[in-house]
Amino acid sequence: MGTTSPSPRPLLGRGSYLEALRIGEILRKETIGGALLVISAVIALIWANSPASASYFALRDLKIGYEPWQLELSLGAWAADGLLAIFFFLVGLELKREIVAGDLRQISKAIVPVAAAVGGVIVPALIYAVINWGNPETITGWAIPTATDIAFAVAVLAVIGSHLPTPLRIFLLTLAVVDDLMAITIIAIFYTSEINTTALLLTLIPLALYAFLAQKYRYFFGLKPAAAWFILLPLGFATWALLHASGIHATVAGVALAFTIPVLHGTKHGKHTEGPGLAEIFEHRFRPLSAGFAVPVFAFFSAGVAVGGFQGLVSALTDPVAIGIITALVIGKPIGILAATWLISRFTKATLDPELKWVDLLGVSLLAGIGFTVSLLVGELSFGLGSAANDHAKVAILTASILAAVLASILLGGRNKIYKKLRVAEELDADEDGIPDVYQDKG
Protein backbone atom coordinates (compact mmCIF):
# COMPACT_ATOMS: atom_id res chain seq x y z
CA MET A 1 0.00 0.00 0.00
CA GLY A 2 1.21 3.51 -0.80
CA THR A 3 1.59 6.14 1.86
CA THR A 4 -0.13 9.50 1.70
CA SER A 5 2.28 12.41 1.88
CA PRO A 6 1.43 14.93 4.57
CA SER A 7 -0.31 18.08 3.40
CA PRO A 8 1.93 21.18 3.38
CA ARG A 9 1.76 23.45 6.41
CA PRO A 10 -0.38 26.57 5.80
CA LEU A 11 1.55 29.82 5.65
CA LEU A 12 -1.23 31.73 7.41
CA GLY A 13 -3.19 29.83 10.04
CA ARG A 14 -6.60 30.71 11.44
CA GLY A 15 -5.58 29.72 14.99
CA SER A 16 -8.00 28.36 17.56
CA TYR A 17 -11.68 29.28 17.66
CA LEU A 18 -11.21 31.24 20.88
CA GLU A 19 -8.35 33.16 19.27
CA ALA A 20 -10.52 33.92 16.24
CA LEU A 21 -13.33 35.20 18.48
CA ARG A 22 -10.91 37.38 20.45
CA ILE A 23 -9.37 38.88 17.30
CA GLY A 24 -12.82 39.55 15.88
CA GLU A 25 -13.87 41.37 19.05
CA ILE A 26 -10.72 43.52 19.03
CA LEU A 27 -11.17 44.48 15.39
CA ARG A 28 -14.82 45.43 15.95
CA LYS A 29 -13.81 47.80 18.74
CA GLU A 30 -10.95 49.22 16.68
CA THR A 31 -13.39 49.96 13.83
CA ILE A 32 -15.18 52.52 16.00
CA GLY A 33 -11.85 53.93 17.18
CA GLY A 34 -10.65 54.18 13.59
CA ALA A 35 -13.73 56.16 12.59
CA LEU A 36 -13.20 58.58 15.49
CA LEU A 37 -9.51 58.83 14.55
CA VAL A 38 -10.32 59.83 10.97
CA ILE A 39 -13.00 62.31 12.08
CA SER A 40 -10.60 63.94 14.55
CA ALA A 41 -7.89 64.28 11.90
CA VAL A 42 -10.32 65.83 9.39
CA ILE A 43 -11.58 68.35 11.97
CA ALA A 44 -7.98 69.29 12.81
CA LEU A 45 -7.07 69.78 9.14
CA ILE A 46 -10.14 71.91 8.43
CA TRP A 47 -9.61 74.04 11.54
CA ALA A 48 -5.86 74.46 10.90
CA ASN A 49 -6.57 75.73 7.37
CA SER A 50 -9.56 77.92 8.22
CA PRO A 51 -9.63 81.67 9.03
CA ALA A 52 -9.71 80.59 12.69
CA SER A 53 -6.46 78.60 12.37
CA ALA A 54 -4.70 80.73 14.99
CA SER A 55 -7.10 79.45 17.65
CA TYR A 56 -6.30 75.83 16.76
CA PHE A 57 -2.56 76.31 17.17
CA ALA A 58 -3.09 78.37 20.32
CA LEU A 59 -5.11 75.50 21.79
CA ARG A 60 -2.50 72.93 20.75
CA ASP A 61 0.31 74.97 22.30
CA LEU A 62 -1.55 75.88 25.51
CA LYS A 63 0.58 74.76 28.46
CA ILE A 64 -0.81 73.18 31.60
CA GLY A 65 0.72 71.08 34.38
CA TYR A 66 3.14 71.27 37.29
CA GLU A 67 6.49 72.76 36.22
CA PRO A 68 8.62 71.61 39.23
CA TRP A 69 7.94 68.01 38.17
CA GLN A 70 8.81 68.92 34.55
CA LEU A 71 5.17 68.33 33.67
CA GLU A 72 4.19 71.77 32.40
CA LEU A 73 3.44 70.62 28.88
CA SER A 74 1.40 71.87 25.95
CA LEU A 75 -1.87 70.08 25.23
CA GLY A 76 -0.25 68.63 22.12
CA ALA A 77 2.63 67.26 24.21
CA TRP A 78 0.22 65.84 26.81
CA ALA A 79 -1.57 64.02 23.99
CA ALA A 80 1.68 62.68 22.52
CA ASP A 81 3.44 61.79 25.77
CA GLY A 82 0.49 60.98 28.01
CA LEU A 83 -2.49 59.75 26.02
CA LEU A 84 -0.39 57.65 23.66
CA ALA A 85 1.06 55.89 26.71
CA ILE A 86 -2.43 54.39 27.12
CA PHE A 87 -2.33 53.24 23.50
CA PHE A 88 1.06 51.61 23.97
CA PHE A 89 -0.12 50.06 27.24
CA LEU A 90 -2.72 48.20 25.17
CA VAL A 91 -0.10 47.28 22.57
CA GLY A 92 2.00 45.77 25.36
CA LEU A 93 -0.98 43.89 26.81
CA GLU A 94 -1.90 42.49 23.40
CA LEU A 95 1.66 41.41 22.67
CA LYS A 96 2.08 39.72 26.05
CA ARG A 97 -1.23 37.88 25.66
CA GLU A 98 -0.11 36.67 22.23
CA ILE A 99 3.22 35.47 23.63
CA VAL A 100 1.80 33.79 26.75
CA ALA A 101 -1.56 32.46 25.56
CA GLY A 102 -1.88 33.25 21.84
CA ASP A 103 -0.31 32.20 18.58
CA LEU A 104 3.04 33.90 19.26
CA ARG A 105 3.85 31.29 21.91
CA GLN A 106 4.46 28.80 19.09
CA ILE A 107 7.44 29.59 16.87
CA SER A 108 5.81 27.88 13.89
CA LYS A 109 2.84 30.27 14.07
CA ALA A 110 4.74 33.37 15.16
CA ILE A 111 7.48 33.30 12.55
CA VAL A 112 5.34 34.56 9.63
CA PRO A 113 3.80 37.71 11.18
CA VAL A 114 7.00 38.53 13.09
CA ALA A 115 9.15 38.18 9.96
CA ALA A 116 6.61 40.20 7.97
CA ALA A 117 6.68 42.94 10.61
CA VAL A 118 10.48 43.04 10.53
CA GLY A 119 10.46 43.29 6.75
CA GLY A 120 7.79 45.98 6.96
CA VAL A 121 10.03 48.02 9.25
CA ILE A 122 13.43 47.56 7.61
CA VAL A 123 12.52 48.15 3.96
CA PRO A 124 10.57 51.42 4.48
CA ALA A 125 13.32 52.75 6.76
CA LEU A 126 15.95 51.97 4.11
CA ILE A 127 13.91 53.59 1.32
CA TYR A 128 13.45 56.77 3.33
CA ALA A 129 17.15 56.83 4.26
CA VAL A 130 18.26 56.41 0.64
CA ILE A 131 16.01 59.26 -0.56
CA ASN A 132 17.23 61.57 2.22
CA TRP A 133 20.83 60.40 2.26
CA GLY A 134 23.36 63.18 2.79
CA ASN A 135 20.93 65.53 4.51
CA PRO A 136 21.55 65.39 8.27
CA GLU A 137 18.45 67.49 8.98
CA THR A 138 16.00 65.10 7.30
CA ILE A 139 17.69 61.70 7.62
CA THR A 140 16.54 61.61 11.26
CA GLY A 141 13.01 60.86 10.05
CA TRP A 142 13.95 57.36 8.84
CA ALA A 143 11.68 55.71 11.44
CA ILE A 144 8.52 57.65 10.45
CA PRO A 145 7.27 55.03 7.93
CA THR A 146 7.87 51.98 10.13
CA ALA A 147 4.56 51.55 12.02
CA THR A 148 1.05 50.37 11.12
CA ASP A 149 -2.12 52.08 12.37
CA ILE A 150 -4.45 49.15 13.03
CA ALA A 151 -7.43 51.38 13.93
CA PHE A 152 -7.23 53.34 10.66
CA ALA A 153 -6.69 50.10 8.69
CA VAL A 154 -9.70 48.41 10.28
CA ALA A 155 -11.83 51.50 9.62
CA VAL A 156 -10.94 51.15 5.94
CA LEU A 157 -12.03 47.50 6.05
CA ALA A 158 -15.34 48.53 7.57
CA VAL A 159 -15.93 51.13 4.84
CA ILE A 160 -15.28 48.72 1.96
CA GLY A 161 -17.32 46.02 3.71
CA SER A 162 -14.59 43.43 3.50
CA HIS A 163 -15.36 39.99 4.92
CA LEU A 164 -11.65 39.37 5.36
CA PRO A 165 -10.97 35.68 6.20
CA THR A 166 -9.76 34.92 9.72
CA PRO A 167 -6.15 34.01 8.72
CA LEU A 168 -5.71 37.43 7.08
CA ARG A 169 -7.34 39.24 10.01
CA ILE A 170 -5.05 37.52 12.53
CA PHE A 171 -2.04 38.20 10.30
CA LEU A 172 -2.88 41.92 10.04
CA LEU A 173 -3.48 42.43 13.76
CA THR A 174 -0.41 40.45 14.87
CA LEU A 175 1.81 42.24 12.36
CA ALA A 176 0.52 45.63 13.53
CA VAL A 177 1.12 44.80 17.20
CA VAL A 178 4.66 43.54 16.54
CA ASP A 179 5.71 46.50 14.41
CA ASP A 180 4.20 48.95 16.92
CA LEU A 181 6.43 47.32 19.54
CA MET A 182 9.42 47.73 17.22
CA ALA A 183 8.44 51.37 16.72
CA ILE A 184 8.36 52.07 20.45
CA THR A 185 11.73 50.29 20.80
CA ILE A 186 13.14 52.53 18.07
CA ILE A 187 11.75 55.58 19.89
CA ALA A 188 13.37 54.50 23.16
CA ILE A 189 16.77 53.81 21.59
CA PHE A 190 17.16 56.36 18.80
CA TYR A 191 15.04 59.30 19.97
CA THR A 192 16.53 59.75 23.42
CA SER A 193 19.16 62.50 23.44
CA GLU A 194 20.01 62.91 27.13
CA ILE A 195 19.22 60.61 30.04
CA ASN A 196 18.67 61.74 33.62
CA THR A 197 20.13 58.71 35.39
CA THR A 198 18.62 59.58 38.78
CA ALA A 199 15.09 59.85 37.40
CA LEU A 200 15.58 56.65 35.39
CA LEU A 201 16.68 54.70 38.47
CA LEU A 202 13.82 56.14 40.52
CA THR A 203 11.44 54.90 37.80
CA LEU A 204 12.30 51.33 38.83
CA ILE A 205 10.75 51.80 42.31
CA PRO A 206 7.09 52.40 41.31
CA LEU A 207 7.51 50.02 38.36
CA ALA A 208 8.69 47.22 40.69
CA LEU A 209 5.84 47.89 43.15
CA TYR A 210 3.37 47.95 40.26
CA ALA A 211 4.71 44.62 38.96
CA PHE A 212 4.58 42.97 42.39
CA LEU A 213 1.02 44.08 43.13
CA ALA A 214 -0.15 43.22 39.61
CA GLN A 215 1.22 39.68 39.91
CA LYS A 216 -0.29 39.22 43.38
CA TYR A 217 -3.45 41.25 42.86
CA ARG A 218 -5.84 38.39 43.74
CA TYR A 219 -3.98 37.80 46.99
CA PHE A 220 -4.13 41.47 48.00
CA PHE A 221 -7.37 42.58 46.40
CA GLY A 222 -9.47 39.41 46.40
CA LEU A 223 -11.70 38.52 43.48
CA LYS A 224 -12.55 42.15 42.71
CA PRO A 225 -9.50 43.30 40.75
CA ALA A 226 -11.12 46.68 40.07
CA ALA A 227 -10.11 47.53 43.64
CA ALA A 228 -6.49 47.27 42.52
CA TRP A 229 -6.95 50.35 40.34
CA PHE A 230 -6.80 52.67 43.33
CA ILE A 231 -3.20 51.59 43.95
CA LEU A 232 -2.02 50.52 40.48
CA LEU A 233 -3.10 53.70 38.70
CA PRO A 234 -1.08 56.07 40.95
CA LEU A 235 1.94 53.76 40.67
CA GLY A 236 1.52 53.68 36.90
CA PHE A 237 1.35 57.47 36.75
CA ALA A 238 4.46 57.77 38.94
CA THR A 239 6.32 55.41 36.60
CA TRP A 240 5.22 57.45 33.59
CA ALA A 241 6.17 60.79 35.20
CA LEU A 242 9.62 59.63 36.28
CA LEU A 243 10.36 58.09 32.90
CA HIS A 244 9.29 61.35 31.27
CA ALA A 245 11.70 63.22 33.54
CA SER A 246 14.49 60.79 32.65
CA GLY A 247 14.51 61.91 29.02
CA ILE A 248 13.20 58.64 27.57
CA HIS A 249 9.93 59.14 25.73
CA ALA A 250 7.18 58.57 28.28
CA THR A 251 5.09 56.30 26.01
CA VAL A 252 7.68 53.59 26.67
CA ALA A 253 6.23 53.41 30.20
CA GLY A 254 2.99 52.07 28.74
CA VAL A 255 4.69 49.00 27.29
CA ALA A 256 6.86 48.48 30.39
CA LEU A 257 3.83 48.54 32.69
CA ALA A 258 1.83 46.24 30.38
CA PHE A 259 4.55 43.59 30.43
CA THR A 260 4.16 43.28 34.22
CA ILE A 261 0.44 42.41 34.00
CA PRO A 262 -0.36 38.69 34.42
CA VAL A 263 -2.17 37.08 31.50
CA LEU A 264 -3.25 33.79 33.09
CA HIS A 265 -5.45 33.27 36.14
CA GLY A 266 -3.86 34.14 39.46
CA THR A 267 -3.62 32.32 42.76
CA LYS A 268 -4.86 33.15 46.24
CA HIS A 269 -3.41 31.48 49.32
CA GLY A 270 -1.62 29.03 47.01
CA LYS A 271 -4.79 27.93 45.21
CA HIS A 272 -5.73 28.51 41.58
CA THR A 273 -8.50 31.09 41.15
CA GLU A 274 -11.14 31.19 38.45
CA GLY A 275 -11.99 34.13 36.25
CA PRO A 276 -10.13 36.19 33.67
CA GLY A 277 -6.53 37.28 34.12
CA LEU A 278 -5.76 40.90 34.92
CA ALA A 279 -4.50 41.47 31.34
CA GLU A 280 -7.91 40.59 29.94
CA ILE A 281 -9.69 42.77 32.50
CA PHE A 282 -7.45 45.76 31.81
CA GLU A 283 -7.75 45.27 28.06
CA HIS A 284 -11.55 45.43 28.27
CA ARG A 285 -11.40 48.53 30.49
CA PHE A 286 -8.68 50.47 28.66
CA ARG A 287 -9.47 49.71 25.00
CA PRO A 288 -12.53 52.01 24.88
CA LEU A 289 -10.46 54.73 26.57
CA SER A 290 -7.65 54.30 24.06
CA ALA A 291 -9.71 53.88 20.89
CA GLY A 292 -12.49 56.27 21.85
CA PHE A 293 -10.49 59.08 23.46
CA ALA A 294 -6.69 58.86 23.69
CA VAL A 295 -5.84 58.14 20.04
CA PRO A 296 -8.51 60.46 18.51
CA VAL A 297 -7.40 63.35 20.76
CA PHE A 298 -3.77 62.74 19.78
CA ALA A 299 -4.81 62.71 16.11
CA PHE A 300 -6.66 65.99 16.60
CA PHE A 301 -3.61 67.77 18.03
CA SER A 302 -1.06 66.14 15.71
CA ALA A 303 -2.78 66.03 12.30
CA GLY A 304 -3.51 69.75 12.13
CA VAL A 305 -1.15 71.39 9.63
CA ALA A 306 -1.51 74.64 7.70
CA VAL A 307 -1.01 73.48 4.12
CA GLY A 308 -0.86 76.96 2.62
CA GLY A 309 -3.02 76.39 -0.44
CA PHE A 310 -2.08 74.56 -3.63
CA GLN A 311 1.45 75.96 -3.79
CA GLY A 312 2.05 74.99 -0.18
CA LEU A 313 0.81 71.47 -0.88
CA VAL A 314 3.11 71.13 -3.90
CA SER A 315 6.02 72.46 -1.87
CA ALA A 316 5.34 69.95 0.92
CA LEU A 317 4.93 66.95 -1.39
CA THR A 318 8.11 67.70 -3.36
CA ASP A 319 10.23 67.86 -0.21
CA PRO A 320 12.53 64.80 0.10
CA VAL A 321 10.98 64.21 3.52
CA ALA A 322 7.54 63.75 1.96
CA ILE A 323 8.83 61.78 -1.01
CA GLY A 324 10.67 59.42 1.33
CA ILE A 325 7.66 58.89 3.60
CA ILE A 326 5.13 58.35 0.81
CA THR A 327 7.40 56.00 -1.14
CA ALA A 328 8.33 54.06 2.00
CA LEU A 329 4.76 53.59 3.26
CA VAL A 330 2.95 52.95 -0.02
CA ILE A 331 5.65 50.93 -1.81
CA GLY A 332 8.27 49.95 0.78
CA LYS A 333 5.86 48.58 3.36
CA PRO A 334 4.18 46.07 1.01
CA ILE A 335 7.53 45.07 -0.50
CA GLY A 336 9.04 44.42 2.93
CA ILE A 337 6.05 42.42 4.18
CA LEU A 338 5.64 40.35 1.01
CA ALA A 339 9.37 39.70 0.63
CA ALA A 340 9.73 38.48 4.22
CA THR A 341 6.61 36.31 3.94
CA TRP A 342 7.77 34.83 0.64
CA LEU A 343 11.19 34.01 2.12
CA ILE A 344 9.53 32.22 5.04
CA SER A 345 7.39 30.20 2.64
CA ARG A 346 10.46 29.40 0.57
CA PHE A 347 12.55 28.11 3.47
CA THR A 348 9.78 26.37 5.44
CA LYS A 349 7.91 25.05 2.38
CA ALA A 350 4.69 26.41 3.86
CA THR A 351 2.02 27.40 1.35
CA LEU A 352 -0.96 29.71 1.26
CA ASP A 353 -4.34 28.10 1.79
CA PRO A 354 -5.81 27.08 -1.59
CA GLU A 355 -8.60 29.64 -1.25
CA LEU A 356 -6.15 32.51 -0.63
CA LYS A 357 -3.78 34.11 -3.12
CA TRP A 358 -0.75 36.37 -2.90
CA VAL A 359 -2.89 39.28 -4.11
CA ASP A 360 -4.82 38.94 -0.83
CA LEU A 361 -1.60 39.27 1.10
CA LEU A 362 -0.69 42.28 -1.06
CA GLY A 363 -3.98 43.95 -0.10
CA VAL A 364 -3.31 43.41 3.61
CA SER A 365 0.27 44.65 3.13
CA LEU A 366 -1.06 47.85 1.59
CA LEU A 367 -3.32 48.31 4.62
CA ALA A 368 -0.18 48.04 6.76
CA GLY A 369 1.11 51.09 4.87
CA ILE A 370 -1.35 53.23 6.82
CA GLY A 371 1.11 54.50 9.41
CA PHE A 372 -0.76 57.53 10.75
CA THR A 373 -0.77 57.57 14.60
CA VAL A 374 2.75 56.33 15.41
CA SER A 375 4.15 57.93 12.24
CA LEU A 376 2.84 61.32 13.40
CA LEU A 377 4.46 60.75 16.79
CA VAL A 378 7.84 59.82 15.28
CA GLY A 379 7.60 62.81 12.94
CA GLU A 380 7.30 65.16 15.93
CA LEU A 381 10.22 63.47 17.66
CA SER A 382 12.33 63.64 14.49
CA PHE A 383 11.82 67.28 13.53
CA GLY A 384 10.07 69.05 16.42
CA LEU A 385 6.50 70.26 16.68
CA GLY A 386 5.79 73.22 14.39
CA SER A 387 8.91 72.87 12.22
CA ALA A 388 8.62 73.00 8.42
CA ALA A 389 10.00 69.47 8.08
CA ASN A 390 7.43 68.16 10.55
CA ASP A 391 4.61 69.94 8.70
CA HIS A 392 5.77 68.36 5.44
CA ALA A 393 5.99 64.99 7.18
CA LYS A 394 2.38 65.37 8.35
CA VAL A 395 1.20 66.11 4.81
CA ALA A 396 3.14 63.08 3.58
CA ILE A 397 1.76 60.77 6.29
CA LEU A 398 -1.81 61.84 5.51
CA THR A 399 -1.23 61.47 1.77
CA ALA A 400 0.43 58.08 2.11
CA SER A 401 -2.30 56.80 4.43
CA ILE A 402 -5.00 57.84 1.95
CA LEU A 403 -3.12 56.31 -0.99
CA ALA A 404 -2.53 53.05 0.88
CA ALA A 405 -6.20 52.95 1.94
CA VAL A 406 -7.45 53.54 -1.62
CA LEU A 407 -5.14 50.92 -3.17
CA ALA A 408 -6.00 48.37 -0.46
CA SER A 409 -9.71 49.08 -0.96
CA ILE A 410 -9.42 48.42 -4.69
CA LEU A 411 -7.62 45.11 -4.20
CA LEU A 412 -9.56 43.79 -1.21
CA GLY A 413 -12.88 45.21 -2.38
CA GLY A 414 -12.48 43.37 -5.68
CA ARG A 415 -12.10 40.11 -3.76
CA ASN A 416 -14.97 40.78 -1.38
CA LYS A 417 -17.38 38.27 -2.95
CA ILE A 418 -14.78 35.53 -2.55
CA TYR A 419 -14.10 36.59 1.04
CA LYS A 420 -17.81 36.48 1.82
CA LYS A 421 -18.02 32.86 0.61
CA LEU A 422 -14.95 31.95 2.68
CA ARG A 423 -16.45 33.55 5.79
CA VAL A 424 -19.69 31.61 5.29
CA ALA A 425 -17.66 28.39 5.08
CA GLU A 426 -15.67 29.42 8.17
CA GLU A 427 -18.86 29.93 10.18
CA LEU A 428 -20.57 26.70 9.09
CA ASP A 429 -21.61 24.64 12.12
CA ALA A 430 -23.27 21.50 10.70
CA ASP A 431 -23.42 19.64 14.02
CA GLU A 432 -24.77 22.75 15.81
CA ASP A 433 -22.41 22.42 18.77
CA GLY A 434 -21.50 26.09 18.83
CA ILE A 435 -18.06 25.64 17.26
CA PRO A 436 -17.58 26.06 13.47
CA ASP A 437 -16.60 22.83 11.76
CA VAL A 438 -13.33 24.17 10.32
CA TYR A 439 -11.92 24.49 13.83
CA GLN A 440 -12.94 20.94 14.73
CA ASP A 441 -11.63 19.44 11.50
CA LYS A 442 -8.13 20.63 12.43
CA GLY A 443 -8.46 19.01 15.86
Automatic annotation (TrEMBL):
Reactions performed catalytically: Na(+)(in) + 2 H(+)(out) = Na(+)(out) + 2 H(+)(in)
Key words of the record: Antiport, Cell membrane, Ion transport, Membrane, Sodium, Sodium transport, Transmembrane, Transmembrane helix, Transport
Pfam families linked to this entry: Na_H_antiport_1 (PF06965)
One GO cellular component term: plasma membrane
Membrane topology: Multi-pass membrane protein
GO function terms (MF aspect): sodium:proton antiporter activity
InterPro entries assigned: Na/H_antiporter_dom_sf (IPR023171), NhaA (IPR004670)
Transmembrane parts of this sequence: 31-49, 69-91, 111-133, 139-160, 172-191, 197-214, 226-243, 249-267, 288-310, 322-344, 356-378, 393-413
GO biological process terms held by the UniProt record: regulation of pH
Subcellular location(s) per record: Cell inner membrane; Cell membrane
Signal peptide: none
Record Gene3D superfamilies: Na+/H+ antiporter like domain
Reported function: Na(+)/H(+) antiporter that extrudes sodium in exchange for external protons.
The family this protein is said to belong to: Belongs to the NhaA Na(+)/H(+) (TC 2.A.33) antiporter family.
Descriptive protein name: Na(+)/H(+) antiporter NhaA
Organism the protein comes from: Paeniglutamicibacter gangotriensis
Recorded name of the encoding gene: nhaA
